[in-house]
Automatic annotation (TrEMBL):
GO terms for molecular function: cytochrome-c peroxidase activity; electron transfer activity; heme binding; metal ion binding. This is Cytochrome c peroxidase. The keyword Iron applies. It comes from the Bacteria. Gene3D superfamilies: Cytochrome c-like domain (1.10.760.10). GO terms for cellular component: cell envelope.
Length: 396
């Protein structure tokens, strides 16, 4: 049966839910969709869809922001095509995946990503476990009220994908016209929604389902967390150094009256709580206020991706960190939080970083730094980098 329509008054966005596979799904012979078969070959089989809807989620993971637009196999399949399709840019050269690359935890190794008319204004955020977070707003400055809204904003950006309707660009309606002329989209939208009609809301829902399906729970951390009752217990599969780093991460610091740490841990979990390691929605600026293009300061950046897959399991970075890409290693990230300078004009600095009104000084020694790095590396898995269901379907 067709699921209901949901209207969220807070964001004024209509979510048209796709059919779940559980809802009397009947496999359709592939010869009913010749354009899909001709375009994608074996990478997309509509008679045997990849599993997006029923992936294994550990029982200790409790956050889930997908209720209004649940992940379905059909919807995420369409979303995968849209995510990788360069037809969604005005000059057919850029896709969502151009800036969010599977090999780099769906981020970019460039500080600024290339668009059709220049480069992005901020570093491309990693798209790992976006479903498992309390924070539902998107972009570093949280200007998108939901992932659904966010998903088409780069398409309508002059610099990124070029369907802005300004500065000589075609508008979004021109993209809809283009997609309507592509045979595999007629078939895919009919397959997912029961009609060939293509709308922005349907595009948004499918893209959001695919992005929310990208999950990473095969890390050393997850193997250890499954063996204990809570995060505060030592993980039996961890080294002594990794357990020390975990304790430092989870334990709040003790400060003196000048903002200097005198005991406890370093309190990373105050903003990035285990086991999801997502960003607390009530978080201010982290002290990095630079801009990529132009001059001045930018204090609006208060969102961050999950800390999962900050680096690969071998410690290789998935690209620079922070909205400016100014941090290029875990050591540098820890160093930034080790000494917080209250810059003139930064009226949005998170108060957790300013105990007693002073910029925190964590006074970490080398052993503590190395322990935190060792722990952060346990948050990285391997499957997210290689799983075919998140790969480019046009590479057949």
């Amino acid at each position: 049966m067709r699921k209901a329509l949901f209207l969220t008054l807070s964001t004024a966005v209509l979510f048209v839910s796709c059919n779940n596979q559980e809802d009397n799904y009947v496999a359709i012979p592939s010869d009913n969709y010749p354009n899909v078969e001709a375009t994608f070959g074996n990478t997309i089989d509509l008679t045997n869809l990849s599993n997006y809807a029923n992936q294994v989620i550990p029982p200790y993971i409790t956050k889930d922001n997908s209720a209004l637009n649940p992940v379905t196999d059909k919807g995420a399949t369409l979303g995968r095509v849209l995510f990788y399709d360069k037809n969604l840019s005005s000059n057919n050269t850029i896709s969502c995946a151009s800036c969010h690359q599977q090999a780099n935890a769906f981020s970019d190794t460039n500080v600024a990503s290339n668009g059709v008319n220049g480069t992005t204004g901020r570093h491309a955020m990693r798209l790992i476990n976006t479903r498992f977070a309390n924070e539902s707003k998107f972009f570093w400055d949280e200007r998108a009220a939901s992932l659904e809204i966010q998903s088409t904003m780069p398409i309508k950006n002059h610099g990124e994908m070029g369907f802005s309707g300004v500065d000589g660009d075609l508008n979004f309606d021109a993209l809809i016209t283009r997609l309507n002329a592509i045979g595999y989209y007629k078939e895919l939208f009919e397959f997912v929604y029961g009609t060939e009609e293509i709308t922005e809301v349907k595009i948004q829902n499918a893209l959001a389902q695919f992005i929310r399906s990208i999950q990473s729970f095969d890390s050393k951390y997850d193997s250890g967390r499954a063996l204990v009752a809570n995060d505060n217990q030592p993980f039996p599969n961890f080294t002594a150094q990794e357990n020390q780093g975990k304790n430092l991460f989870l334990t709040p610091p003790v400060f003196d009256g000048t903002g200097s740490r005198t005991g406890g841990g370093i309190g990373c979990a105050g903003c990035h709580a285990a086991p999801e390691f997502d960003i607390n929605p009530i978080t201010g600026n982290n002290g990095i206020i630079g801009v990529l293009n132009g001059t001045g300061i930018d204090i609006t950046n208060t969102r961050a991706p999950s800390l999962r897959d900050l680096v690969k399991t071998d410690g290789t970075t998935n690209g620079p960190m922070m909205h400016t890409g100014v941090i290029t290693s875990l050591q540098a990230a820890i160093g930034h939080y080790g000494t917080i300078n209250i810059a003139p004009g930064n009226t949005n600095l998170d108060p957790k970083l300013t105990p007693g009104g002073n910029g925190q000084r964590l006074n970490l020694n080398a052993n503590e730094v190395n322990a935190v790095i060792a722990f952060l590396r346990t948050l990285s898995g391997t499957n997210v980098y290689t799983d075919n269901k998140w790969s480019n379907p046009f590479s057949n």
